[in-house]
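Narrative summary of target 7.
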Amino acid sequence: MAKRSLNNEEIYEAAEAVLLQEGYKAFHFKLLADRLQVGRSTIYEYFTNKEELVTSYMVHKMSRFYEEIKSINVHGHASERLEEIIRLLMKFTQIHLIIETTPHVNANISEKVKKNLMMLWRARNDIFQLIETAIVEGQEAGEIKQELSATMITDLIFNAVRLNQRYYDHPLEVGTLLYHVIFNGIGTEK
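Modeled conformation, tokenized:
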């Protein structure tokens, strides 16, 4: 195959497509090279191994998610924050792929992979904490039923947005609909 230069963004996009189609365990550089129409050696110029590539891709996606999540008004109503968080989780469906994949990655392959996985684990916990904090504040403000466990609601929200991966073409619209379904089920009557 002809040698051509790539950039990380091209590699990440192709890696995402292969991961979504084949899954982490079946992912390998030959599949990725075929998709990019380059030789495997070209990919090895950028990444030492599958684990480094996949975790670097995941850190890249998580960073983009964090850039957008920073725009959420943390001083607004909890219900508005939850709606925006759900919409962002629907927009960044890769977040679920990342969370589901991290336990399967061999952290001992290199220090870079270990560092990336630790960063991703902290990010996962931060996302859950962000959701749970909004729920607790909503409960304190009387927007969300206090008798419901904030952790259970967090898990419900986080797992409900996974529906997007398989069934919907318009994730942001579904995010709004999903928010209304969840919130109307957990919100107090006014």
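The two ends are 65 Å apart (CA to CA).
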